[in-house]
Amino acid sequence: MHVFQAVSTNIAVREFQDRPLNEEHLRQILEAGRLCQSGKNLQPWHFIVVRDKQLLNGLADLMRGDLDEPVVRKAPVAIAIVSDPTSEFHVLDAGRTAQNMTLAAWELGIGSCFMSGPEQPDREPYREKAHDLLGIPDRLNLVDLVVFGYPKRRTVVRRKKRKELQEIASEKRYGNPLVLGES
Q: What is the mean pLDDT of the chain?
């Protein structure tokens, strides 16, 4: 699969087959995160792989009542993405690693979904409890969980529902129409 094909077909997957991830696939997903570009090459991230069902259920319990709860509970793997806030780019860089991982997973036939936890005002208490549950040092930031697994059914996306490029891109200054030649 070419990168653009992965970008144009990758979707959030919330239903997984009941089987563990192949170890080599998990290694490739983590390597895709590790090899990500980062601001000033600071690499301000750390990944916590959660495969233990008891720990996954503990994380899901923290989301009780939220749409993400059953997804985390049934996922074979979650990767907690942790960042070091001493880097001014830490959240952006953590997001970039997650995107690398989800695209690499998709190429391998593995689905993924970001799990941000409950909606406000419950999100901060959830993050604090998840921080403790995962043993994350106080000086570091839990950015998100990303769950991974083999999709129950492989959905083929012909065309994503996204805004047109002309609605979201300008040239020279905000609001100046972008003009591209025919491809």
A: 93
